[in-house]
Amino acid sequence: MNKKIFSGVQPTGNLHLGNYLGAIKNFVELNNQKDNECIFCVVDLHAITVKQDPKELKKNIRETAATFIASGIDPNNSIIFNQSMVSAHSEAAWILSCVSRIGWLNRMTQFKEKAGKDKEKASIGLYSYPVLMAADILLYDATHVPVGNDQKQHLELCRDIAQKFNNDFSSPNFFKVPEPLIQKQFSRIMSLKDGTKKMSKSDPSNLSRINLTDNKDEILNKVKKAKTDPLQMPENIKNLIERPEAENLLSIYSSLKNQNLENSVKEFEGKNFSIFKEKLSDLLIEKIEPISKEIKKLLNDEQYLDAILLEGSNKADKIASKKIIEIKQLVGF
Length: 333
Ligand code: AMP
Ligand code: TRP
Description:
Elements: E1 4-9, H1 17-32, E2 37-42, H2 44-47, H3 54-71, E3 79-82, H4 88-97, H5 102-106, H6 109-115, H7 124-138, E4 144-146, H8 152-168, E5 179-181, H9 216-225, H10 244-257, H11 261-268, H12 273-299, H13 302-331
Parallel strand pairs: 1-2, 2-3, 4-5
Helix pairs in contact: 3-12, 4-7, 4-13, 7-8, 9-12, 10-11, 10-12
The structure holds adenosine monophosphate (AMP) and tryptophan.
């Protein structure tokens, strides 16, 4: 089947190994499969749901586009574009917010986590963020959406919104109900400092994550300092229970090596962590350092990156503006 792929990444800086293994690596694989139509979006409208410095935002938009390209997404094969350059996203988000129910949004755990204790002070944008995400996907009739595990609930909401709109406006197949593409294994990479916390852009400790712009020495240092436990490497997969750091590091190794966790456990059973860490650093350097170097090279050519985003946005706009006209007709505008 011809798949239509859509996904987005926020230009909020510090793109890291979790973004790569949970999402971007899959984008590349999907982009390389024949017959897939892929659209990858730098979701800057989502980024401003929390305060951004305008200069930093501009830099991070280019850096996100550079990361897509450096990771292996071919801009001639896929559309890489900037959400704010296609006005249909904002228009569709408003219309869909009138279809969405407050009760549905109240269940979103990411809002609860990001808003923290003082919800009254969170932006309205942060609350309605998943509706904009639904607009992104539905405007392109995407059939499949590759994301990390943390976006699962938002995709379920997108499916509900699509179905309710189709129902409310008596157009059973108008919006395609998209399928999430979430890896079964390794869809949630954890912090290097705490195996129970997600690896995150916003963790104040730079040692908690491998950034995709880290050089060899930074990677070596972070793996060296990564938290472990006092035991030897596990002998079988059951020994990983209640050893979140060991499980996370082995998952990172397995995902980079494209092998299952069982095989990685076998490879290192009963060995010292130091031996494993050496191999892990080698593998990270082999896979991540070329990406890091390419990102830095691309960032020196702002004109090229801006041209890719402009061209991608023009192509995206052609698709999205057609769909928004149809949406408006159904609504009665
Ligand atoms: P964001 O940076 O929040 O825009 O996320 C971009 C993509 O990376 C989304 O598909 C997320 O689900 C994925 N992602 C972010 N953090 C992680 C993580 N720690 N492990 C796996 N996937 C992640
Ligand atoms: N909310 C996603 C995240 O933080 C980013 C995103 C925005 C997205 N729009 C999307 C992902 C559409 C997939 C499809 O990771």
